[in-house]
Specification:
Layout (H helix, E strand, L loop, with lengths): L1 E17 L1 E6 L9 E11 L3 E6 L5 E7 L3 E14 L11 H9 L2 H5 L11 H11 L4 H15 L1 E2 L10 H7 L1 E2 L1 H14 L4 E8 L10 E4 L1 E8 L3 E5 L4 E2 L4 E7 L8 E6 L4 E11 L2
Parallel strand pairs: 7-8
Antiparallel strand pairs: 1-6, 1-16, 2-5, 2-15, 3-6, 4-5, 9-11, 9-14, 10-16, 11-12, 12-13
Length: 280
């Protein structure tokens, strides 16, 4: 069991005064049996009308509008979350068992089809299909994750939020978002339901209690093999107590931390800082 305080500050700076902005944020951690959320709040400046809801994939979303002139939009999410260990059943699902489960579940059907972002490169699709000839769905998923980890280099600034799996794989460089999209595309190629997970990762393997560290938003994957199994292909690790879940979806487009539009002729600049403190 681990307890974390996460402070995620983000927003937009505008080159001039904009008249109004309309925005949607996904910055509040998920509540479930694995995560106990002691506190979570979103502070928005300037203030405006706010509506919180659960989206189609059960991610907590906050929609808000600012209808007064402003030069900067500031959003700060502050959460205290306890992450509890999960005991998963043995992943014994066979390929013969998998298809009937997909056809009987809308949840699985939604995440077995490719999206524009996850269309896999032919080389990796061929690799996944070859694995599926001898491995179980769960074993195939693990081997795909490990191949992506071995062949990709983690590097900021080469890809962007609009990058797709094939582009990142061809360059063999990307960030966690790219690693996740590449894996999702390969798994869906062989019919494994798989979903994109957004959240946070404490950067230290052995966090020091009370020490505030600089973190960032993170992404990993989950696949269905009788139950949902989570893996972080960027770091080649199983998802355990250092990972805090914010949302899930088909790809990044379903769970961006912040997006919006504004009225005005000026350009904007996104800013982000994340601080994570282990409290217990």
């Amino acid at each position: 069991m681990s307890r974390y305080r996460i402070v995620h500050s983000t927003g937009f700076k505008y080159e001039g005064e904009v008249v109004a902005s309309y925005n949607e944020a996904r910055l509040l951690p998920t509540r479930d049996d694995h995560q106990l959320v002691f506190a979570s709040k979103l502070d928005i400046e300037p203030t405006g009308a706010v509506h919180e809801y659960f989206d189609y994939f059960k991610t907590r979303a906050v929609m808000f509008e600012v209808l007064e002139p402003h030069r900067q939009l500031n959003i700060t999410s502050t959460s205290v979350v306890e992450v509890r260990p999960e005991i998963k059943p043995a992943p014994g699902l066979t390929w013969g068992d998998l298809q009937p489960e997909i056809t009987s579940s809308l949840e699985l059907t939604d995440v077995v089809a490719q999206t524009k972002r996850t269309q896999p490169p032919a080389e990796l699709a061929k690799f996944a299909k070859k694995l599926a000839e001898t491995y179980t769905p769960h074993e195939t998923a693990l081997e795909v994750c490990r191949k992506v980890f071995r062949e990709m280099t983690y590097q900021h600034g080469v890809t962007g939020v609009h990058s797709i799996a094939t582009e990142a794989w061809n360059a063999k460089i990307g960030v966690c978002q790219d690693f996740a999209h590449i894996v999702l595309g390969a798994l869906r190629t062989v019919g494994i339901p798989a979903r994109y997970v957004s959240g946070y990762l404490h950067p230290s393997i052995s966090p020091v209690l009370g020490e505030k560290v600089i973190g960032e938003s993170h992404a990993w994957v989950e696949w269905w093999a009788g139950s949902w199994f989570a893996f972080d292909p960027t770091n080649d690790v199983h998802v355990e107590e250092r990972h805090i879940v914010v949302g899930r979806g088909r790809d990044y487009d379903d769970v961006p931390p912040l997006r919006g539009v504004y009225a005005g002729p000026f350009s904007s600049e996104l800013f982000v800082t994340v601080e994570i403190t282990k409290e217990a």
